[in-house]
């Protein structure tokens, strides 16, 4: 459901990669795009529809619904899929846009005994797994974490209304922060800036930042700049003993590699590594394996970061951040890069 950039260029591309895996031979090639904007099929294996099909009309097998529409429509489209008879759903981030909707979504899952998984792309990154292992093996705790996701997004921002910078890349960043620093993080500060371009203004769509703290004083800084002239997906992690590691995630579909660096407490570079990394493909593979196990009557645990319960905390922090950023909009603020900076 939704065959724009996310559905067409991300989810469908990853599905095509999964369809050739011998370990996922049950995965059918046929994809039904439910989107009134799709005028004609792109290939022999893609059919377009304006409305969701009844599950029993999909003769190939059990239907899995990927919801790739705008966040404000997610709850409505989940409800439609459930009432139509679908029970396996993959939901893009942000899951929903409010805590009230998150509560309703959880109730729907229980009522219909459905399996709804929220995309947790970075939880399935080779780089993130390596950094989590470094953190666990350190024997100490996390002191500081910074996650940066910058990219130019002018055209798509001007084409749309009602978006917020905290709904673009920040849901993935908050999810990653909770996975690395724990789900007891509390919001300390939030800030967003409007985009002014070509005589138009898009409130809260230029850049944004979140500052969070953990129960042991861990400091977390998340920033996203949608007016950046360059693309960057980077996270920096400083441990209690002063050791430091930094990672660079793939910035687009053009490349499928991450880079990792580690430094000693004295600042000496002690490790560097290039990692094959296709996190969204790996994520969807894990989700389909989960669905197949459920279909066999098993009771597997949801993949890391994918459950509605986990993502309720993501939604809660983002909703708090929107309110805090709106309240601070009238105040004069400094650069979003000033507080909570980690050492290079």
UniProtKB/TrEMBL annotation:
<dbReference type="InterPro" id="IPR000683">
    <property type="entry name" value="Gfo/Idh/MocA-like_OxRdtase_N"/>
</dbReference>
<feature type="domain" description="Gfo/Idh/MocA-like oxidoreductase N-terminal">
    <location>
        <begin position="44"/>
        <end position="111"/>
    </location>
</feature>
<protein>
    <submittedName>
        <fullName>Gfo/Idh/MocA family oxidoreductase</fullName>
    </submittedName>
</protein>
<dbReference type="Pfam" id="PF01408">
    <property type="entry name" value="GFO_IDH_MocA"/>
</dbReference>
<dbReference type="InterPro" id="IPR036291">
    <property type="entry name" value="NAD(P)-bd_dom_sf"/>
</dbReference>
